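Chapter summary example.
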Amino acid sequence: MAESILLGHAPRPTSGSQLEKRIRTLVVAAEPAGVACTSIIDAELDGPDVKHLHLDLTDFHLADEHDRDRARLEPQGAPVSSEDGVLRELRVKADPMQISGATVRLDAHLMDVSFRWIETDNGELAVDLTPPDDQHPLHGSVRVAVPKDQLGKAVLGLAESALFERGITVSRFDLDVEESGPQSLRVTFDAKVRKGLLGAHVTGGANAEIDDRMGLTLSGIEIESGNPLVAAMLNAVRGKVARYEGRRIDLASELPPGIRVADVNVEVGSEVTIEARLV
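The structure predicted for these 279 residues follows.
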């Protein structure tokens, strides 16, 4: 049940104040030990549905993979019952929050998010988000801003769990983005990675151009390593990546069902800001 989020003991809350307390416990578990929780949480229930959930995560610190209290984040039992619900309005803002030492400003507004209340065989209550589909699409908007010199830290913090599950650790990840045209970016990275006893310095980059119809064209793709063994392994990856050189990728058609992006805007200055609208 790794995709489920623990919300204390069953049964499910029956009032907004009960749900607020459970979410606060979840927020505390996701922060490093000793950090005072200052998040503001406002919720209103309507039976199994959540009429609104507003989270102000300003000054929230996302703990790294080793500091998170997984015993209070993920249910341990097996599901025995479930009840469908809809989160009619979700608003999450942070001005700012901290992710792996990066200062991230976030403003997200989503509507009609489907989920399930899950009860487990040891009396736990969890929430399992239901993937959107064509009949239940996501609607709303998202705006994320990260200082340019902290972008690598933020990306690494978000990808850390997936890398950890594959036995990969990254001790350094520097990411740089430069505007190379009205709708073009040059993205480069410099990383130190380790898998088991094998460590390596890996660098790479690509030019990315996005057109008005959500088409992405990549060019100048590079990925290199000074470690001869890793460089040999990257040859196979390089061959697969090379197939995308100069090829237009229709981002709209590549998105999962239920997620449709009408507008994406990227601005690069002292901050890298990404805005998107979901329809």
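To summarize the output: The first helix runs from residue 16 to 30.
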